[in-house]
Write a structure and sequence with these properties.
8-stranded antiparallel β-sheet; mainly beta
Length: 107
């Protein structure tokens, strides 16, 4: 794991995580390092574009969307009485699954 200090109280990471979703596609919880972190506030969802042609990712037929990177910013807590932490997860077309890319250090 590589962690880089970005802003006060924030760490940049790149670690695989699992997300659990409602039937409507809204995150319910994040599993990170063997611990389940329930989502405790309304999540923020957005997409970003990246320069796929500058990568080694092949652009073949049947590969789905190779342009959009999906993000969720979630406020989670380990227990009902623990403080909120903000995590940002990303699903990149060149990666397997979701990755934790930013974490608040406000715990």
């Amino acid at each position: 794991m590589t962690a880089v200090q970005e802003h006060t109280g924030q760490r940049a990471l790149n670690e695989p995580v699992e997300l659990r979703f409602t039937p409507q596609g809204v995150p319910l919880a994040v599993r990170w390092r063997g611990r389940l972190w329930p989502v405790a506030a309304e999540p923020l969802h957005w997409f970003s574009r990246w320069n796929w042609w500058e990568s080694n990712l092949p652009a073949g037929r049947g590969q789905g969307n190779i342009v959009d990177v999906e993000f969720w910013r979630l406020q989670v807590r380990a227990t009902s009485t623990s403080p909120l932490r903000t995590v940002e997860v990303r699903k990149h077309p060149g990666w397997e699954g979701w990755h934790l890319v930013r974490l608040s250090d406000e715990a």
